[in-house]
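Q: Predict the assembly, please.
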Amino acid sequence: MSYLKNALGGAAALALMAGAALAEPALMYDLGGKFDKSFNEAAYNGAKRWADETGESYQEIEVTAEAQRVQFATRLAEAGYNPIVVLGFQNAATVEEVAPKYPDTKFAIIDVGWLDIPNLRQITFAEHEGSYLVGMLAAMASESNTVGFIGGMDVPLIRHFACGYAQGAKAVNPDVTVIANMTGTTPAAWNDPVKGGELTKSQISQGADVVYAAAGGTGVGVLQAAADADILSIGVDSNQNHLHPGEVLTSMLKRVDNAVYDVFSAGVDGFEAGVHTMTLANDGVGYALDENNASLITDDMKAAVEDAKAKIIAGDLSVVAYYENDSCPALEF
Amino acid sequence: MDVIPKWADAILIPLISIILAFIISALVILAIGEDPINALQLMVQGTFGNSAGIGFMLFYATNFIFTGLAVAIAFHARLFNIGGEGQAMLGGLGVAFVCLAVPWPHWTIALPFALIGGALFGAGWALIPAWLQAKRGSHIVITTIMFNFIASALLVYLLVEVLKPAGSMDPATPRFPEGAHLPRMSDILGAVGIPFSDAAPVNVSFFIALLACYLFWLLVWRTRLGYEIRAYGQSESAARYAGISPTKIILIAMVISGALAGCMAINNVMAAERLVLNSVEGAGFIGIAVALMGRSHPVGVLLASLLFGFLVQGGAEIDFWTNIPRELIVVVQALVILFTGALDNMVRVPLAKVFLMFRKREA
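A: Predicted assembly structure:
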């Protein structure tokens, strides 16, 4: 939001440092960058939607180093921003340290649900449920009976995505082969489209004809390589169907934008603490269907997925979460 | 080279280089339509305007002192240790193992053991490339770079599969026990009545880093081993002729180098009270710039570390308060490295001419 930051001239900035109360909301991005076409960008879209609709402004900051997490969160609280939305499980320790020091400031954290702090709203997503649905679509669309998964870094969260995907694919076709690869072992793996493209080509050579990317900015390379090779891909977090119309089968939606939008809209007065889980039931996760992929999803596919969705919501079908016992019934890591 | 007096070589040349780097940076900031004076003000104000800013600068500087000294000791033996990053990661593992091994009663007992743990792991990680260089002639630059990736992969594996508490999504070790928590600067200065912000993570490790600078000086310029390392670095054939074993010097210099890089972990891991995935975040590479700029001398390394600490902290301030993209802060850091490290002669040669002119006049 460049125009917002422009409004904060040097003098204003110094005044803010002194701790002037603004009661503007603030958003703190995780490592990986604001425009990662996925997780952080989804949050940005939610904040922007709120700003466009209300005409209000907000502060935002990108974390670039571990030590800055606490530094920036403290700074936002000191400067009087309220509520403060913090993105990413890697910031769990950050809010654990900062939030209790500023009991009057409302904090919200996304992807964390295990803390116990009175002024903190914790928002988690049932990514395995959404991934299950796109896994079903992948297996139904595949002609080679081989589907691929490309993750960013090999962390539990990404295994969680992969595990739901594999369960969905195997529910449709027990004989389907699921190939899973991780992009790298350093945080660079979240933003390495070239490597993502190479992994996609490698999976194609192993027979995959649908590839699901859960890898932040790396996914852009996965979708590109898949489109180049005329196979299908699946986007993640934001709706990425428009990146290659007709070649992206669907996107696993993780409505981080809604979560941010809700916290910003509720403001300080409407703030609700506690753990809030975004699932299929409350449209927190889902699969994307729009004009770009309408030709790829047949009525049968849609019916099957909608049926599974209804069953998951009703509790008749349970998708195993990787966290439950750090292992996956459908996929070996 | 002798035309430039020692003080000018040590202070004037780096100073001019830094000023040049800042001028070019200012032009770049102007070019994207921002105000460089305002940016500099923010950097200075955000770093020196309050004790928290100073604390963050010193915290970053502590990391850079350790990795800078690590690269510097290898430089003295003409070895280019690019593996500070990986050695510091392994040092973090060593420190984490020590801190989690026993319920430490007090940090004064835990700290020496953590130092030993970090140093051993860092040294061990440097020993393999050193051995390959000494015995097999595998180039140390290549092997140490590759060992950075191996270290990173090893760390991910251990954190995701082994050290992570069950059920946690965050690939990090559990929190270290209370007795292994290091006192922060605010506790230390508070005890003598000086108020200091407790927001900054700077801690007792900073003093360990200063001690490491002194010990480094003692080792390199006041011991026989230091003499041998320098002699080997100046001329391998002369050192060999003098009865100095190249194998021994390569191994020892790299082990000390790795140990210094590993010791950094007391600052970024032990003081953070847990080991996370990217705890090193480039300090190993900045150490190379710090050692180059500091002329491999501990005082120079200390000053260069403070400068880079200022750049990181000041850069964060610019990022926070202005519209200047964070990539540009990296550009400023790169310009400082470029001018102080790579373009040294651009300043040195004209400066030598100036000094020569004065000397002729005196004569």
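DSSP finds 16 helices and no strands in chain B. Residues 59-305 of chain B form a domain with the ABC transporter involved in vitamin B12 uptake, BtuC fold (CATH 1.10.3470).
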